[in-house]
Task: inverse folding
């Protein structure tokens, strides 16, 4: 099940291309919200890798299996789409939504392309408490509007 935070991040990625200036504004409000919650680039990267693992393998898969699947996906993406085009994109291509590429794009962009690839590093990331659980609460549109009124008057 997709969390509210995951859905909002996906909206922030897709909104500028779909809604023009209004989409840019909406994406900025969503991103400001998450930045204010104190999530670091490493937190966002790790969340994306944890979501990737959850999508690629069954929950009962052992750590070695999860690490192997994530590591293979990282290597394919890094040598392919990341090198060819995605590192230059500001927003995620809409066709990535709901696919492993969505999480890979988020992980690579959150960390400027610095994604762990060693089994030991990936194991630590996948075993760390799910950062996405910390931010998965409901987020009402009124909060976006309240943020805009108090911080962007005019």
Result:
């Amino acid at each position: 099940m997709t969390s509210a935070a995951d859905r909002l991040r996906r909206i922030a990625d897709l909104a500028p291309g779909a809604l023009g200036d209004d989409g840019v504004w909406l994406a900025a409000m969503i991103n400001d919200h998450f930045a204010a919650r104190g999530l670091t680039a490493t937190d966002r990267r790790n969340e994306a890798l944890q979501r990737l693992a959850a999508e690629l393998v069954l929950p009962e898969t052992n750590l070695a299996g999860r690490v192997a699947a994530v590591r293979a996906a990282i290597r394919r993406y890094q040598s392919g789409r990341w090198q060819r085009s995605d590192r230059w994109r500001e927003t995620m291509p809409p066709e990535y939504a709901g696919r492993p590429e969505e999480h890979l794009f988020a992980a690579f962009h959150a960390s400027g392309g610095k994604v762990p690839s060693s089994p030991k590093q990936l194991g630590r990331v996948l075993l760390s408490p799910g950062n996405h659980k910390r931010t998965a609460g409901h987020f009402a549109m009124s909060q976006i509007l309240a943020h805009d009124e108090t911080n962007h008057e005019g």
About this structure: The chain has one domain: 4-151. Confidence is low (pLDDT under 50) at residues 131-154.
